[in-house]
TrEMBL record:
This is Response regulator. Pfam families: HTH_18, Response_reg. Keywords: DNA-binding, Phosphoprotein, Transcription, Transcription regulation. The modification 4-aspartylphosphate is found at D52. It comes from Niabella pedocola.
């Protein structure tokens, strides 16, 4: 998947320069001001934001503060660009939640490395969550707001895990979000669709039940919402690279 970057700057030359530098590696969305940026955020899955600080209307500090305080977008890393070479400006950028702060003029190599590191670190966390049987979903949180969101989402899935037909509409209603907004949030935060997140939650619960050594596999498959044990076994193998039986055999003997 090609990551999507939103670039916000009222300077056309900067937008053109960054398009040349980043366009071959990432899917880019360009905005000349905060209002246009808001429209893009409402319509697209964005993985990272690069914003100038000095802009008419909504400046970079205010934009960053708005993004980081909104549950729909607060997981998105933000790089602030500025010509302000002052300690105070740097502190203010960090206070509003910026993930990185780069002074103009900057080298394209520095920016590319900063972007790659932010995205790579998030991908590592996502992959770790998906492949680790006992890792809590909140490991993917990048803020208290994200943590509360993921906790509420996970609690709902866990409490309905025996139900085979949990879907995005049920989740959206519980989270008080539109279907589209919830999809974008989950996809951007975890790289998973809501269905994939539900499936992984079922399989993680199954792994914990297997570890308890109190139930047969066909019982566990039903306890986590699978009507077919063969489908359960195939999905377990796909996510954890071993069958439920192989996983059981790796557990310490009593």
């Amino acid at each position: 998947m090609t990551e999507s970057i939103l670039i916000i700057d009222d300077n056309e030359d900067i937008l053109e320069f960054l398009s040349v530098v980043l366009g071959d590696t990432y899917k880019l969305h360009l905005a000349a001001d905060g209002a246009i940026a808001q429209t893009i955020l409402d319509q697209e899955i964005i993985h990272l934001i690069i914003s100038d600080i000095m802009m008419p209307g909504i400046d970079g500090f205010e934009l960053c503060s708005r993004v980081k305080s909104n549950v729909e977008y607060c997981h998105i890393p933000i790089i602030l660009l500025t010509s302000k070479n002052t300690y105070k400006a740097h502190i203010e950028g960090l206070e509003v939640g910026a993930d990185a702060y780069i002074q103009k003029p900057f080298s394209s190599e520095l920016l590319q490395v900063q972007i790659a590191n932010l995205l790579k670190n998030r991908k590592k966390i996502k992959d770790h969550f998906a492949s680790s049987p006992f890792e809590d979903v909140r490991v993917m949180a990048h803020s208290k707001t994200d943590e509360a969101f993921l906790k509420k989402l996970d609690e709902y899935i866990q409490s309905n895990i025996k139900e085979p037909n949990i879907d995005i509409d049920m989740l959206a209603e519980h989270m008080f979000m539109s279907r589209t907004t919830l999809y974008r949030k989950i996809k951007s935060l975890s790289s998973l669709s809501p269905k994939e997140l539900i499936d992984i939650t079922r399989l993680k619960k199954a792994a914990s039940l297997i570890a308890e050594k109190e139930f047969l596999l066909y019982e566990i498959s039903r306890m986590v919402g699978y009507s077919s044990q063969s489908l359960f076994s195939r999905n377990f193998q796909k996510h954890f690279k071993m069958s439920p039986t192989e996983y059981f055999n790796t557990l310490p003997k009593a």
